[in-house]
Task: structure prediction
Amino acid sequence: MGSPKINWSKFTINPDYDAAPWWDFTKEGKLMVRSCDVCGHRWWPPGAIGCSSCGNFEKTSWVESSGKGAIYSFIVVTQPILGAFAEATPYLSAVIDLDDMRGVTGLPVRVMGVIDEGDDQAGINSKVELYWEKISADGKQMPRWRLSTQQPANVWKFEGRPKGS
Amino acid sequence: MGALTGKAAIVGVGQTEFYRDAKRTTLSLGLEAIKKAVADAGLRLSDIDGMTSYQTGDSHSSNDMAQSLGMRLNYAVDIMGGGSSSEALVAHAAGLLAGGYCRAIVIFRSMRGRTGRRMGGQALSGPQPNTVVTSDGQGPMVGVTTPAQNFGMAAMRYMHDYGVSTRQLAAVALTHRYHANLNPKAVFYKQPLTLEDYYNARWVSKPFRLYDCCLERDVSCAMVLMRREDSYDLRHPPVFVLGGTARTMSESPSYNAGRLHTPIYWHGSNWGRNRAFGMSGVTRSDINVASFYDAFTITPLLQMEGYGFVKPGEAGFWYQEGRGLIDGDLPVNTSGSHLSEGYSHGIQMVIEMTRQLRGRADDACPNWEEGIHTYDRKAGCRQVKKHDVGFCSAWGSPTQSSSLVLSQFATAN
Ligand SMILES: [Zn+2]
Result:
């Protein structure tokens, strides 16, 4: 279906002190996650400034992800709610496990993204990769995601109505 | 058991009708519900000296209500919150009554859930014109802002993990609809839902179709609580508060910032399950009737499993076998609740539980107000047969849950 057309002119980003550095990194095409300087835990989103493993929020750093991952869960939005996405429906939004980022318990760091492909092609476990789309005059970019060329065998697709029901 | 088990009782309940468009303010709706609840208790407005409510910046306050009803309150607090707040406020009320802050307290919720601020987020005239992100924008930047979308993420992963399909989601919709068909107050009174109707309905956002989602309405509901010793000689038998949990949270309020990465479909009940039953002094097998917050068809499944009524992954199949129907193993959501009665942010489910535990479910039986029922479902009786102990489970944000164990006896056993 091609990448969903999102009208970023209807989307204003006016970040607070906590999230501003993350948006600045997007201008350089860098997808950053937070890292705890005390215990080494890593997480996203950037608006959550404290470490849920040890409670430290005073000393954290940014680390860059390569932007490769796998779909942990997803929905397909069919009804336009946000103006910026009004002409993008239907679009698939996903929770994505990053391949190269792990928290202290060894589990992957999770981010969210719109996937270019629909649920006819994508599902849970699908491998995805990041690309950037410029969205504002000051150079901010939005992470966008598409299916990777190599796909695993265990992609789980949503069945609207299972056979026999 | 908890220190306050059996010390407070729900003595009166009241609600407006579920309007598609009430053409009334939340003040007017609230006043009606409060008056009805006080009258149902057999009390006068001047007997009430405490009031609490919950809202999301979309309603009138206790102060507004008291002024229009000529009440002078000794305690008035309004909290921010939607689902899971009514059970939490019952917990507050038990403490306030025991502590002597007030002697009779009203809890209310008044909302224009259909014509005012809709939880679904859509503007009245269509999509919201503009989105302003002031932080990281985690949800909005990927076009995910509504409860249906957020709970959809949890639903999809749950279905993957346990081999559950939309057929099990449909079973929840059909069960609650059957109960609404018996409930004269329900929006879908006498309007059955078939499996074909379910599958033919439009998508809201996959995996949810129209009948997977609650029925937004303009409505107000209220209840009155008093101390046990004050509750006996009123209009109806008292329904006692045994215990529960109040807005229990999971370890990660976000999809992703947590440390443990419990599955995204886990929520407060997975942490509150022992406290809920332990402080109430009952076990799951003591529960005769239950309700699980049904903002969506997925949410009752996750709560039933979270509180341990069935094993993980089993709840949908349990529903499909008809075990939650009014004459099944454990009747659930007997009013039709959010999916088929109307959406009130949970408080109507506590009201329904109160009516069931009194043995006075309002139905087609001519003498239901005296607790005389035929139990003939075809004739429109909707009173459950055994009604000693009831369990109300509620859900707010994707990670926040409350529960409430109620009983017609001040001690459970
Ligand atoms: Zn840390």
Summary: Chain B has a mean pLDDT of 94. Chain B touches chain A through 55 residues (CB under 8 Å). The radius of gyration of chain B is 20 Å. Residues A 36, 38-39, 41, 51, 53-54, 56 surround zinc ion (CB under 6 Å).
